[in-house]
Design brief:
single chain, 7-stranded mixed sheet, 12 helices, alpha/beta, Aspartate Aminotransferase, domain 2, 4-stranded mixed sheet
Length: 404
């Protein structure tokens, strides 16, 4: 990410977050104070509204403050908050969220382990793969991003981001995404292969059906657990409920997060009952979490999953195709990569990308960087945006591109 020029002129000693006693993730935060949010709009202190063209990095797929989600949360809050660590008590919202999530998935993905975030879902999936296979070697893909805890960082490929935290998990190797020849590296010594169904941080890279089918074939032949990470591309972002359903393959474990909670913090890994049973013995409590399956966050997931069933994907594709056509026609855009409502806009260099993003903030539209593709910026607008909102959003994005 490029250094930003912050519009806040407050004389900070350590930085806009550190001076508030909050840990900082970057020396150059956007530092925008949010008063409220509704639909596609962020209402900001002293600067009016921002069109959220990134959905909180893929979290607010159904817009901000959706009344159905808020009602579900309020209803659960009136009943109870946390009562006991996950796996001891039953909560109606947790059971219903698991049932609804499984209803979108193939029969072998019928058992859900709720956790608190996408990266925790990855951690759980990696552990489960070791129990399934009795092996410990793992394969991931060049360009893959799976989170920032130690295990998920180990199977992510950005070496610059990993270097300060070495050593991470041992015996993790990387193959080329969407390259059939590289699949020869998968053999019966491997515990799991983990991929993003659509690579997000690499700039919206979509695999071929032939590669996905061969990947599944090789993993099955060698008894290797196949893990799909749909933390970013799931929950309707790809223009279908879950991206892998476009292909004639099914993973052994599916990881989801981000938009799953309708704005609440949640993640999940999903597998078969036979596989999940392995985490309950030898040892007992083989995977535990205090707040996973929290009744309030699961109430948010219930509402989000019901809204997912009602998305008009035909209308969504029409709006996103309109965005793609207009973006591709702009003279400063080198290329547009899109899958559903998941966009990467490639410009000539990192400096131009930062200039466009910052101009967007001035105009009133929020766009954002990729961690690993400095010459491109991401767009992932709320799936619930109307035709009128889509026109407003793209007009501002195109205006920002004029500074490129």
């Amino acid at each position: 990410m490029m250094k930003m020029t912050n519009t806040d002129t407050t004389p900070y000693k350590y930085g806009p977050f550190l001076d508030l006693g909050l840990a900082a993730t970057t020396p150059y935060p956007l530092n925008i104070k949010i008063n409220s949010a509704e639909g596609v709009w962020l209402n900001c202190e002293n600067r009016g509204r921002l069109f959220d063209a990134i959905s909180g990095i893929g979290v607010s797929n159904f817009g901000h403050g959706h009344p159905y989600i808020k009602a579900a949360l309020h209803e659960q809050i009136e009943k109870n908050l946390h009562t006991m660590v996950y796996g001891e008590f039953h909560h109606e919202s947790t059971i219903e969220a698991a049932s609804l999530l499984s209803s979108f998935l193939p029969d072998n993905l019928d058992t859900v382990y709720f956790v608190n975030s996408g990266t925790e879902a990855i951690e759980g999936a990696l552990k489960l793969s070791k129990r399934i296979t009795g092996r410990h070697r793992m394969i991931a893909c060049i360009g893959g991003y799976h989170g920032n805890t130690a295990g998920s960082l180990s199977v992510s490929s950005n070496s610059e981001r990993k270097a300060p935290f070495l050593p991470l998990l041992p015996e993790v190797s990387f193959i080329t995404f969407n390259d059939i020849q590289s699949l020869s590296e998968i053999d019966d010594s491997i515990s799991c292969v983990i991929i993003e169904t659509i690579q997000g941080d690499a700039g919206v890279i979509v695999p071929s059906e032939a590669w996905m089918i061969k990947l599944r074939e090789v993993c099955s032949k060698n008894g290797v657990t196949l893990i799909f990470d749909e933390i970013q591309c799931g929950m309707g972002r790809s223009g279908r409920p879950f991206a892998f359903t476009e292909y004639k393959v099914t993973p052994d474990i599916l990881c989801v997060g981000k938009a799953l909670g309708g704005g609440m913090p949640i993640g999940a890994f999903v597998s078969s009952r036979a596989n999940m049973k392995l985490l309950s013995n030898n040892p007992v409590l083989g995977h535990i979490t205090t707040f996973g399956g929290h009744p309030v966050t699961c109430a948010g997931a219930v509402a989000a999953l019901k809204l997912l069933k009602d998305i008009d994907f035909v209308a969504l594709e029409r709006r996103c195709d309109m965005w793609e056509q207009k973006l591709s026609s702009h003279s400063s855009v080198k290329c547009v990569r899109r899958n559903g409502a998941f966009f990467a806009i490639e410009l000539k260099d990192a400096e131009t990308t930062s200039r466009v993003i910052l101009k967007g903030l001035e105009i009133g539209v929020l766009m954002f960087w990729f961690l690993s593709v400095p010459s491109a910026f991401r767009l992932s607008p709320p799936l619930s945006m109307s035709d009128e909102e889509a026109e407003i959003g793209i007009a501002m994005i195109l205006e920002a591109l004029n500074v490129a």
